[in-house]
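Hey, can you fold this one?
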Amino acid sequence: MLREFNFAKVMAVLAVVFGVSLGLCGLTAVVASAAPPLAMLGALEMAAMLLSLLGMIVVGLAWLVATIAGGGSSDGLEFQKLFDDERDGKSE
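Sure. Predicted structure:
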């Protein structure tokens, strides 16, 4: 099961969510001075930011434990594909 789980893809998605929520949180802080009702969005963005950060920590630790426990490939260093190559018509 660990060989089929793509840790890199999950980390990339969580990092994008963290970055977008961080940017929106900053944008909301700037706009909230002009429109106070928008300040409530800051709590939602902060929650998304904290949950994605927690997710990155948990997935990172799980990735480390899986690698130490032998869940990784024994072929040495190799790249993980984030996305399937659709040009070949097959997915790995």
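Helices lie at 7-31, 40-68. Let me know if you want another pass with a different chain boundary.
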